Amino acid sequence: MHQLLDEALTSHADAWAVRDQAGRWTYQELADRSHGYARWLHSLGVRPGERVLTKLESDRDLVALCYAVSRLGAVFVPVNPAMKLFHLRAVLENAEPVVVITTEKDLAWLPENVGAPAYDIELIRPLAEELGGGEPLASPAVSAQTPAALVYTSGSTATPKAVICPHAQMVFASEAIQQVLGYREDDVVFCRFPISWDYGLYKILLSCLGRSELVLAGVESDLLLLNRMWETGATVVPIVPSLASMIVKLAERQPDRLPEVRMFTNTGAALPRGTVEALTAAFPKAQVVRQFGQTECKRISIVPPGAEHVPPGSVGRPLPGTRVVVLAPDGTELPTGEVGEIVVAGPHVMPGYWRMDEQTERAFRPGPDGRRRLHTGDFGRLDAEGNLYFEGRRDDMFKRKGIRMSTVEIEAAAADVSGVRAAAAVPPGEGYDLTLFVESELPPGVILREIAGRLEPAKVPAMCRVLNEMPLTQHGKVDRTGLAAWLRDEG
C-alpha cells in the first residue's frame, strides 16, 4: 500500500498531499514523515503482521502513520476517536496490538490490561519529524496478501468486528474506484469522515492515486464547514445524507461564498431527491455520484460521473474487474429482474473477519469456481444491462398485512417527496405499527398522503413523526434501533 505514495513521489513530490487545521504537507513531506514514524515503530520492535492501534482524530500524522505501518508490513488498526471504553476493551482484546497510539487524555482511561505500551501522539510527533528524511528504512518483503489494516465495523455482533483488509484487496479496490471516479491532480478532496471508517481510510489511497490534495476536516465546527470548503478550494466532497443536508442548509445561508465542487460522492444511504436537487442548484458544476458497497469488499458498484444511461434508482454497475450475481435462498442464480441476495466476486473481496471464524464462514463462501465470494446480506436485482438495484438488507425486510416489504422502498418513497430531507422507516414492533420518521417542515399528514400516491396501501406507514434532526450512530448512520426503542417506550 505504501508503494502508492512512493510512486506519487516520482512525479509529484512537491505537490500538496494532505492538509488539516494545523497546516499542509507535500507528497515529499508526507513520505518523509511516514519514514520517521516507521523508524520509531521499528525501534520499538514492531514486526510484520503485528498490530498498531491508533485512537486519534484524523490529521496529517495519522495519514503518515498509516503509510509507516504499511512500510513495516505491520497492520494498521485505526479506531474511532469517539469509541467508548465498553467497545474499546473488546477491540483491544480482539486485535491484540503491540503498540497503542492515542492522546494524553485517552491514556488516562485506557484499560489497565491493555497488554501493549501506549504513547501520547504529541510526544511522538517531534520524534517522527527528527527521524524523517534521509535514506529510507529498509522495508521488509510484504506479501500482497498480508493484512494492511483491520477496519472495525458495527453489525450483527454485540461488539465491533474487524474486516481483514490485505494490501492486494485495498490497492485493487482503490484503483478500480479511481478508474471510475477519476480523481485529478488539481482536485482537493474534502473529507469530513474519520480514517477509522473505510469511507475515510480509502480517501488516503484515492487522493494519492489521483495526485490530489486531501483535506481532513473531521474536527471542523459544523458552522464553519462551508467556509472551510471554500478556503481550501474543495472540488470533490464525499457525503452521506446527514452531511449533504448540512451542506444544503449552510449553502442557503451563504450562497455567495461557495467552493466550485465538481463531484459529490454518496454512499451509506440514498440521498433524498430534494437534497440532490438542492446540492446541484447550489453547486451547478457538481455531479452527485451514487455508490454502493460494504467494508467487506469496499465498493460494489458506482454510477459513473456523467452517466446518463443508468436508470433512476440503480446503484450503478459493478466495479471494473468484479462480478455481481443475485442468488435465491437455495443458492441458485436468479434471472434478470428477480430479487435475491447480492453476492460479490472479485479481487476486492476481503478474506474475512479477524478471529471470527463463524461470522467469516457465514459471509465469505466459495463459489462454483472455488473462489471466495461475499454474501452481503443485501437484497437486490440486476437488469438486462447489468445495472444493480438495491432493495434492502435482510434486516430491512418484514411482513405487514400479509405483504413482504422493505424499509428501503418506504424510505425511498418518502425521500421522493419534495421537502423531505431525510427519512427512516421503523417496521412494526411490540406496541407500535409501521412508523416513518422524517426531517422536514411539511406536516405529517401531507407526507403520508404523498407516500400513499407512490406505494400500495399496505406499505403506507401508520404514523409519521417529524424531527428537527435524525439521531445518528457513531458511524454516521440513522439510529433505527434508538428510534424503535423510543416507540416502545412511548407505547
What does this structure look like?
The chain is built from 15 helices and 25 strands. It has 3 domains: 2-166 and 195-207, 3-Layer(aba) Sandwich (Rossmann fold); 314-400, Luciferase, domain 3; 405-490, ANL, C-terminal domain (GMP Synthetase, Chain A, domain 3, 2-Layer Sandwich), CATH 3.30.300. With 491 residues, it is an alpha/beta fold. The protein has helices at residues 2-12, 27-43, 60-71, 85-95, 104-107, 121-131, 167-181, 198-210, 225-232, 241-253, 273-282, 357-363, 407-415, 444-452, 480-490; strands at 16-20, 23-26, 51-55, 75-79, 99-102, 118-120, 147-153, 161-166, 188-191, 213-216, 236-239, 263-266, 287-292, 301-302, 317-318, 323-327, 340-345, 364-366, 372-382, 388-393, 397-400, 403-406, 420-426, 435-440, 463-467. The mean pLDDT is 92. It has a 5-stranded mixed β-sheet with strand order 11-12-13-14-15. Strands 16, 17, 18, 19 and 20 form a 5-stranded antiparallel β-sheet that branches. 47% of the residues are buried.
